[in-house]
Every structure is written in C-alpha cells, then in structure tokens.
Amino acid sequence: MIAFFLTWLFQFPSAWLHPSKAGPLFVVKSLLSPTAYIVTMIWTVVKFNGVDLQLGKKTVSGSVLAWSFMKAINTVVSGVVPPMVNIADLARYANKPSDAWPLVAGLFISKPLVIIIGLLTTAAGLKEFGVANWNLWDLYTLILENYWSPSTRTLVFLGSFIQAFATIVTNVSSNAIPIGCDLAGLFPNYFTIIRGQILCNLLIWPVVPWLLVNSAKNFITFLGSYLCFITPILACMIVDYWLIRKGNIHIPSLYRPEPGSPYFYHRGFNPRAYAAWAIGVVLVISGIAGSITPGSISQTAVNIYNMGFILSLSAGALSYYIFCRLFPVDIYPSTAAAAEEEVAADHSIPSSWEYMVPTEGFFVDGKDDDVMPEYVREKIGGLRGDILQGVEVEGREHDVVIGGEKDVLKS
C-alpha cells in the first residue's frame, strides 16, 4: 500500500492536464518505453549468454492446447479492447481523419512486440536464475542481488524510472481521460474534463487496486473479467456506426439532448444497446467465478469464458443488429423525418445524407435557424440556386435546386 500511495502521489498532479495538452507526454512515453524494454532484453540475453525457452512447466496437446491458446488470445486482446473503445477521447483532437490511423496501428503492433520482448527477457532470466520472473520488477531485483555494479544499478534505475513514468502516462490515457470525458458529457453542469479526471484519481482508493495486481494470476483474472463487460460495448459501437448508420453522423443532433434527436433514444437511453450488452455479458460472465475459484463451475463454462472476446463480440453485435432491425433507430432528427414524409408526398424536400453534406447537416428550410452557426448560414446563402446532382430519393437519382423555404427536385 505504501508503494501504491507513492505512485498515486506522483500520479495525482496529472489530473490537471487537459487531453488537448497531453500530446507531448505521449510522444515522450512512446520513445522511452520501447527503448527501455529493448535495452533490458538485449542486456539480459547478452549478459546471461542466451535464453532458456522451456518456460512452461508441463506439455499439453489436443483440446487442452487449443483452449490454452484461446485463453492466451483472450488475455492479449483484453489489453487492446479498452483503448479501442476509448480511442475517440484522444482522436477527437486530431487535425484530420488520417491522424487517427497511427493510433490504430500502434495498438496492434505494440502488443505482439511487447509480448516477444517479455518472453525473451524472461527466458534469459530463467536460464541464469532458474526461475521465470514474469514481473519486470522481480527480474530487476534478482539482477541487483547478483550483479551489484555501477553500470547494472544505472540500467535498473533508468529502466524502473521509465517504467514508472510510462505507467503514469498510461493511466492518464486509459483511465483518467476517458472518465473525465464521460463525466463531462453526462453532467456538463457539474463536471469539466479536468474535474472528472480529479474525481477518477480520488476514487482509486476505494477500488483497492493493489489487491488486483499483487500476483500475475490475479491480474490476468481481472483483465479477463473486464473484457467480458467492455467487449459488448465495442460490438454495439461497430454495428451502430458501420451497419446501421453506414458511417454517417448527423453532427447538429449530437448537441441536442432532447426528444426528436436521433441520439436521444428513450429519455436519453438506448434500450437496444443495453439489451445487446446484457446478452454479451451473460453469455460468458459465469466463467469469472471459475477463474477466481477453480473447480466451482463446469469445464464447458470455463471454455466459454476462455473465448469470451469472440463470443461477447459476436453475441453483442448480432443482438444489437437484430434489435435495430426489429425496432429501427432514427438516423435523422424529427425535422428530417417530416421532410421524408414530404418527399414521399410531393418530392419537395429530399433528406438524403448527400443532400445535407453542403450544409454540414443543417436543413435549409429554416427549422435549424435557432442553432445554425453563422458560417453555415452564410454558406447556405451562397448555395441557394446551386444544383446538387445525383441525389438519391426513393431509389432514384435527382438533381436538387437549393431554393428558399423548400428545395425543388428536377428529375
């Protein structure tokens, strides 16, 4: 607990760092952390004259090997899914859409790279000391006990310092910023992003996280259980964006927490998403008991839990898609729904996504004048009389002449 308190003491000031100012911190971490890991790996392999790859205590085959492999995949993915869900909290500060791609690439490159480095470093330690230390600090302790020289102490100090710094920065990006953004979005009258980050740092103590990481087994169990709850959220996000809305977002409606907004759903809650999330969780949650207390559940339930990512993602995605087909979501605000009815009646106002692109989602019939930014208002004024070609209405392409109160279709 003393070690945790000291870490928290250094961590707490970062709560006052706004995400828009955190970029340089992430750059420094991305440069120092890989360097520290690679240098540690090279030093141990060279110093200990190679590696001992017999890291396993027993040999397995058949279905046991297959399920163990599936469990390993589940464990690795558990560290990737949370950043995938929270990536928008950082990507929102990008200057252009392509700026987000390095984040995605980094997620899938860094994990295998760190695993390989960790395996080789641990294997080198096993060859030298006869014990596999999967925790880096345990390996550093053994190195200091057996190689007490100025160069070794310097290496261990720098490696430990960089690891501590990297952990603090990871907490900022993966814990503090997501909670700060969520609280600021849910309760804007009470929370800013920084206030949310401060609350996150204060709520750490009741969670007693030092009990979660006091052993590698407990930590892996925690990661697996966390995956069960967060994977269905990712599934709903993927289906909603790519399949239901086909990559289209009506920006003005994001700032309208009121009935009629396509993102307000039922009093601000989306019952389809909650139902799909529950299905994805219930399918694998029994396996958590088996991880905490081995033998308390059947082997079938354990196997289901070991492939929790695949099952939760598939079940959550399929359930949400079915619910959205049975109970369709609005992809336009209520003003657009009325416009669609008008299109069906006399083809006077098209409301396709293509039609709204030049006006950035705002309607040119006066319904959005109360919230329309001035630059959009000027843009629409310049568009009046222009012709949009190839706008699809009821399965047919038309040319649209942007006019006054209503727009005119030209077949």
TrEMBL record:
Keywords: Membrane, Signal, Transmembrane, Transmembrane helix. The lineage of its organism: Eukaryota, Fungi, Dikarya, Ascomycota, Pezizomycotina. Belongs to the purine-cytosine permease (2.A.39) family. GO terms for molecular function: nucleobase transmembrane transporter activity. It is a multi-pass membrane protein. It is found in: Membrane. It comes from the Eukaryota. The chain crosses the membrane at residues 27-48, 60-81, 101-126, 155-173, 193-213, 220-244, 274-292, 304-323. This is Putative allantoin transport.
